[in-house]
Amino acid sequence: MSLAALALPLLRQLPAELAHRTTINALRFGLGPRQTTPDPPSLAVNALGQTFSNPLGLAAGFDKNGEVPDAMLALGMGHVEVGTVTPRPQAGNPKPRLFRLNEDQAVINRMGFNNNGLDRLTERLQARQGRPGIVGANIGANKDSEDRINDYVLGLKAVIDLCNYVTVNISSPNTPGLRGLQDRASLEELLGRLVDARTLLKRTTPLVLKIAPDLSGEAVEEIVAISISAGIDGLIATNTTIARPDFLQSPNAGEAGGLSGVPLMGPATDTLRIAARAAAGRLVLIGAGGVTSGRDAFEKLLAGADLVQLYTGLVFHGPDLVSKIKRDILTCMIEAGVRDLASLRSLRPSG
Q1: pLDDT, tens digit, 9 for 90 and up, residues 267-306
Q2: Which terminal residue of the chain has fewer beta carbons within 10 Å of its beta carbon, N or C?
Q3: In angstroms, rounded to a whole number, what is the distance separating the alpha carbons of residues 34 and 319?
Q4: How confident is the model at residue 15 (pLDDT cuts 50, 70, 90)?
Q5: Which residues partner with 98 through β-bridges?
Q6: pLDDT beyond 90 at 186
Q7: In Å, how far are 49, 73, 106, 231 from 328, measured between CA atoms?
Q8: Contact by Cβ (8 Å): 213, 241
């Protein structure tokens, strides 16, 4: 067990946001665990025009300001997504705004895109240029912006040369009206302007769209069709949910914000399956939401994901969860009779 894992019970005694800040600071000072052996070749994934050493990545929200991507890569992540970043710094919503649901292994957050802004993030991304590891940048819009689509264009232009892919976050429930960008007309304009900007810059950095788990099946299919038509490269299914399942036990279950963790696993994976059927291999799919075990990750992969992300699982299980998930994926692969992750395609349901 790592030192960081031993510290987990102490962190759990702190208020949630303070515990998060303490963790970031510890990682900045090199106190995080490190993977000492390379991942087996059977876990490698070719996606978004690059090779990931394993399918497991860190979802956006943990490292909003790009302070510790290399520390999280050293933990054994196959990729790390920093952000969400907005053009201008913003404080986010009033505190308290982050709540553990211990009885449900879940978290509710209403952070509100609190971050230091594009200038600070790009400084940090520039400083790590030349280091190994796949890092994505998640971009958003300022709460008080008069032209939110332009905020995304500004974000894309700022980070496109400094990261391995760019995620367009229009699915956070904590910025009023933001999810409206998932509607057809708004989404077509947004993706059109982003793809045009990428073309004018003569860049090929992959663009990925992050969607909500609260969409109807028809809406997911429409988003997939728009994404393919626009020429973006992938989807992340999904962000947090505004739903509150009736089986939640925590006293914090009534807090406003986005719910993540174990209760999100089912809805997020259902959304992923719908997207996978609709995309039929034409988009790279990243499964996020509710991953706390290797079997959860494997279920996402079977449902159509090329890659998998987690965040909330680390809150409850600590950093050792990363290596455990990868070991369990290998066990699941043996049980399924596949030699590598590319072979999983033959096991996925079609149509």
Answers
A1: 999 999 999 999 999 999 999 999 999 999 999 999 999 9
A2: C
A3: 10
A4: confident
A5: 109
A6: no
A7: 26, 19, 22, 35
A8: yes
Determine the Cα–Cα distance for residues 99 and 327; give it in Å rounded to an integer.
30
Which listed residue (172, 227, 260, 293) is catalytic?
172
Backbone angles phi, psi at 257, to 5 degrees: 130, -170
Query: Domain 3-345: which CATH class?
Result: alpha beta
Domain segments of the chain as ranges: 3-345
Residue 197, both tokens: 């900007």
Name the amino acid, one letter, at 207: L
Q: pLDDT above 70 covers what percent of the chain?
A: 97
**Token couple for 203:** 């860049």
Token pair, residue 68, equals 């510790």
Q: 117-148: per-residue pLDDT in tens?
A: 999 999 999 999 999 999 999 999 999 999 99
- Reduced to 3 states (helix: H, G, I; strand: E, B; else coil), residue 153 is helix
- How many residues appear in the chain? 351
- C-alpha 135/C-alpha 98 separation (Å) is 25
53 catalytic? Reply is no
Q: Cα(351)–Cα(348) distance, rounded to whole angstroms?
A: 10
pTM: 0.95
Token pair, residue 87, equals 């053009």
Instruction: Give the model's pLDDT for residue 121.
Output: 98
What is the average pLDDT value for the chain, to the nearest integer?
Answer: 93
3-state secondary structure of 301: helix
Q: CB under 8 Å to 302, separation ≥6 — which residues?
A: 344, 347, 348
Give ∠ CA 173-175-180 in degrees, rounded to 5.
70
